[in-house]
Amino acid sequence: MKKIKKREPHTWFIANGEHYVIEPDGDKNYQGFVGFSGAEFNIRFNDGTLVTSHNVWYQGKIPEAFRAKHFYRDNATIITKN
Known about the structure:
With 82 residues, the protein is mainly beta. The protein has one domain (2-81). It has helices at residues 2-5, 64-67; strands spanning 12-15, 18-22, 41-45, 50-53, 56-61, 76-81.
């Protein structure tokens, strides 16, 4: 809950019941690393917004009990991951 409530729109998403965070491209976290080793993600949010990022971080699967709540439902689809 803390990760979702503190973040701006389109900087986090849930796809297939799994939570991800989008950090700015070029922002190296965790001792100089970028998420998914800089793989390109194209994410389409349910509101139609398309975001491309090379710094996506996996946060884990949302437990089934939490997915029933409105703000823990999928809010995006991963279009491509290269």
